[in-house]
Amino acid sequence: MAIPHFDDLRKPILDLLSDGNEWRKADLVQPLAKHFNLTDEEINQEYQSGNGSIFIDRISWALSYFALTDLLSRPKRGSYVINDFGKTFLNKSNAEINQYVKQKMAERQAENPSSKENDDEIITDFPNTQNTPQEQLYSSYKTIRQNIYDEILDTILSKTPMAFEKLVVELLQRMGYGGAIENSATITQYSRDNGIDGVIKEDVLGFDKILIQAKRYQLTDSISQPDIQAFAGAILQANCNKGVFITTAKFSKNAIGAVQNLAHAKIVLIDGQKLAEYMYHYGLGVQVEQTLSIKKLDNDYWDNMPNDEKI
Q1: What are the DSSP calls for the chain, one per residue?
Q2: pTM of model > 0.70
Q3: How far is CA 227 from CA 162, 246, 255, 259, 302, in A?
Q4: Cβ–Cβ under 8 Å, residues 66 and 72
Q5: Among 105-114, 120-129, 154-163, 194-203, where is mean pLDDT lowest?
Q6: Which of 177, 260, 279, 310 has its CA 20 to 30 A from that of 25?
Q7: Considering the chain, what percentage of its residues have pLDDT values greater than 70?
Q8: What is the dihedral of CA 155, 156, 159, 163, to 10 degrees?
Q9: What are the phi and psi torsion angles at 279 (to 5°)?
Q10: What is the phi/psi pair of residue 173, to 5°?
Q11: 51-68 b/e with 16+ CB inside 10 Å = b?
Q12: Could you give the CA distance from residue 194 to residue 84 in angstroms, rounded to a whole number?
């Protein structure tokens, strides 16, 4: 079974807390995993960013929303207990519970509209989604990033073919190829490139080289198998065994297959999407617009403080 959305966790969490005892997030993991028939792999699956377990994070958000909407009380940090109001929801469906939580969260945000203008704070309400605010943030980030990828490729297409050749050589250097070797990269002159647009030396004397083919084609175009075979022939003629074929377009299945079947050379294919991703990742032609700092509690700091047993 797929990892449940945090909306789907609400009814099972209330049922578990119906015993009136204090529960911590960690106490809920195994019972909920059993309820949803999750495997160990699904329980431990992390966000692509590496910021923790998806399943545990969704439990955390479900608990937080319950506390914010008065269905659960927090007798002490990290502990939750169902209150009298929360008990009135035990016989309600998951859909009814979700509807209440979303309505209550919308009311909370409406009561404090000025907070939206605070640049130091992110007030997030997603009444029509099953994802947590953190997942929404990641999703928005991916959407923004893809838009930048598209802008990168559109901008490349507005430049000259020679500018594109210089760009791909600079990108490979930014990625670490050529290292600290002085003048490690060169652009081949048009009149005698023999199918090679650029060369990167991997050692001082140039015994080991990477040959580059750069094709600035329309995004909907496709690089075919003959193009790969021609590049492979140029690599062989240059007495080399490494090549990178970079394009703003795509590679056909036959072209990809041709690379996999080469015996005398290793050719890496970089299509338009991957090219834009590399440029974004290595900061070529882009700059940081804004940095959002998201913080969480430092458990070690708070755990060193004595608890008030009266609470």
Answers
A1: -PPPPTTTTHHHHHHHHTT---EEHHHHHHHHHHHTT--HHHHH-B-TT--SBHHHHHHHHHHHHHHHTTSEE-SSTTEEEE-HHHHTTTTS-HHHHHHHHHHHHHHHHHH-GGGGG-TT------TT-SS-HHHHHHHHHHHHHHHHHHHHHHHHHTS-HHHHHHHHHHHHHHTTTTTT-TT-EEEPPGGG-TT--EEEESSTT-SSEEEEEEE---TT-EE-HHHHHHHHHHHHHTT--EEEEEESSEE-HHHHHHHHT-SS-EEEEE-HHHHHHHHHHTTSS-------------HHHHHTSPP-TT-
A2: no
A3: 19, 12, 8, 11, 62
A4: yes
A5: 120-129
A6: 310
A7: 89
A8: 140
A9: -65, -40
A10: -65, -40
A11: eebbbbbbbbbbbbbbee
A12: 80
Structure tokens at 133: 């605010």
**Residue labelled with tokens 């469906």:** 93
